[in-house]
Write a structure and sequence with these properties.
By secondary structure, the protein is α/β, with parallel strands linked by helices. The chain has helices spanning 28-53, 58-68, 86-95, 108-118, 152-162, 180-200, 207-220, 224-233; strands spanning 76-80, 100-105, 121-124, 137-143, 163-174, 240-244, 248-253. 45% of the residues lie in helices and 18% in strands.
Amino acid sequence: MVESPAVVRLPIGTLAPHPPIAGAYTTLDQKKRFVDAIFDDTAQDYDRVERWLSLGSGAWYRGKALARAGLKPGMSVADVAVGTGLVAGAALKIIGPGGRIVGIDPSVNMMSYARERLGIQTATGTAESLPLENSSVDFLSMGYALRHVESLNGALGEFHRVLKPGGRVCILEITRPRTALGRALLRVYLGTLCRAVGLFRRLAPRTPELWSYYWETIDKCTPPDKVIEALKAAGFTNVRRNVVGAVFSEYTGL
């Protein structure tokens, strides 16, 4: 492990995951401040709302997806945008005591939940500037956070840098439904269920705002073929996209 490098200005030609979200931010600097703050402010609710949204199946699905991507016992793992540790927890069950995992996230509050619940090593950092040595991990995972990076090509280039030769990447994402009906249903589902949780549990003031922002980033996110192109451009081979339930995308590559 090395100290986290300073955040650098992104070069011309940066591929953003989506255009600016109206009412949230208009520049990259504003985006970073907005995303860091909203995740810090809602960390206490994240796991509870996620369990309701996934109907309790999230942990099962994450484990299956990681296994499909090639995660095996004894591997070293970097879980980027670790959040409260939902993906990292599934990875721990697979890698076992012979493996090791480090969770990386810019949100200190989110990471504290992962560290306390799982007992894993954590480090503050962004996807575009990982606090890891070159060729230092066997497997890199990112769960539902590619929409929140500032630069797709910057993040994927970093992923390639820190993976060992033959290392594997697994990016889990929610993809915009193809039909207008599907988009309407997902938008209503995310907004309505979050409000329903609030009827039974006291939520942080910004929790509904977070899930509304989630929908906006899903709706406006760059399409899957562009993500696949960006993975290949970063140097990954055998790039694939597995789709589950029409909206859950698993991007993998070597």
